[in-house]
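ok so i was messing around last nite and threw this chain in just to see what happens. nothing serious, just curious
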Amino acid sequence: MKETRKIENILIIGATSAIAVETARLFAEKNMSLFLVGRNQERLKAVVDDLYVRGAKLVDSFIMDVNEIGAHAEMLKCAKNVLNNIDAVLIAHGTQLDQKRCKLSVEATIKEINTNFISTIAMIILIIDDFEKQKYGCLAVITSVAGDRGRQSNYVLGSVKAAVSTFLEGLHCRLNKE
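result:
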């Protein structure tokens, strides 16, 4: 994936998170085309409207819960149809997990792992496959300093973010081998 191109068409997953909204606003001001993915239809519509006002060339959206892994491929297909091609992807979804709840519940812990790790990795695998086929693409994934080391206050979040970061490090090595 050595080919480079100007970034014009961007997919944002977790598009209603604060950092995703602010990032999308910067892209909109540069007249880029955006495809936004989120769970909350009302919040997503408000972001779409805001981005048009800020100068986005095109903005469309897709309602999806990232834990519905089977919906990922359909969402990507829709994004490619709307944008024509995807130059860059920002993965910004995730939850502010409740460590105390996770400490008391295996089910709560597994739910957080699914949302913050499994769904992210499943999405990355599909995205990178598309990028390799088109021979270009930029992927940005928001992780956290919580993954730098285990802490009593948030070791579930830290574990999940460390796993995502380690996956990305390995993926980077795979894609940039020479």
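not much to say yet. The beta strands are 9-13, 33-38, 58-63, 88-91, 138-141.
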